[in-house]
Amino acid sequence: MKSTTSFFWRLHQVFFIYTLLVYGLAFFTFTGHWIAGFLMMSLPVVLLLHLLIFCYFALRKSSKIALSGAALLLSFPFWSRTFQFSWGAPTAPEKQELTVLSYNVMSFDAYNFIQNIHPENNQAMLEWVKGLDTDIQCYQEFYNSDTRPHLNTLKQLKKAGYPYYTVLHPDIAPREQHCMGLAILSKYPIIDRGEVEFHDQNGLLFADIVVRKDTIRVINLHLRSMIVRFGGLKEAYLEKDYKQGKKEAKKVTQRLKMGFVHHSEEADVLLEWIRKSPHPVLVCGDFNEIPYGYVYGEVRSMLANAFEEKGHGFGFSYRNTPRFIRIDNQFFDKKKLEVIDFQTRRDIPYSDHYPVIGRYRLL
């Protein structure tokens, strides 16, 4: 019995060292290597395990509680990335504020609309965004078709009060009349724009927007997906087909590995854009990465995160499995912008993402 206890204590010590490595990688983000990506992705699981171990040793009144207690205390730099307390109701909007929407709209559910599968979802989503009182709207997985009146979203949004816009021109849909991917719409004039396509609808899009007497650069992004499908693994497990399970596990690992590689490359482009911007920067979009990842950490080292400053709760922004992740973000230049409020609208169920809205004051 004593040898078993000693073994698990040694295992706990090794786990503590692993925890310190994960913390270091997530905090300093000194490498975007795919191995580091896997380690950083494990941070929420690491915290949960330490919490369970802490509770176990607390119930046993064991002095060994100190190690997991220390691990939990050392995680404090990540608390603000994980949860935000809400103190009072948001203040009423002011005239000098700037309100920004970021929303992955799942192509406005156009494919289901065309096949007459719950077509009301498309219309409800469009009516909601048209009725919003925002100054700038940043869309991921945007969709526009000038041959179908209900899907001519650019025309509808222009009528709703957004006369200025710019869109990504991916190879799969290079024409604005039938565009897919990223879009920025504004009530204020756009005086310059730029874009980089990564793959299909993924990429970067910027717009220099003149807001009263100031000019800000809004960068809208959609990094490549890190979401993997576990259906094959589940099926292999239920059928006790271990050979197939091993094959499916290898597929999942390979997809994640390539995702980390792509994100590291995409981060280089994004960070260069931020560094070279002649104007204060506001970054919005679908990062397809949890708040402990490489891209998040690198952008956070240059800009402030709106959720961490004025968010509420956990801010989970993805509706599908895994549901408990925050991958939609807004980052801003704290020297030129002040965030007043940041909301994840979990009451809006039309897409596979929840919209996020930030309210800012120009300094």
From TrEMBL:
A Pfam family recorded for this sequence: Exo_endo_phos
BP term (GO), one: GPI anchor biosynthetic process
InterPro entries xrefs: Endo/exonu/phosph_ase_sf, Endo/exonuclease/phosphatase, GPI-anchor_lipid_remodeler
Annotated ranges, domain Endonuclease/exonuclease/phosphatase: 101-353
Assigned keywords, A-Z: Endonuclease, Exonuclease, Hydrolase, Membrane, Nuclease, Transmembrane, Transmembrane helix
GO-annotated molecular function: endonuclease activity; exonuclease activity
Cellular component per GO, a single term: membrane
Keyword Membrane: yes
Transmembrane segment boundaries: 7-28, 34-59
Protein name (record): Endonuclease/exonuclease/phosphatase family metal-dependent hydrolase
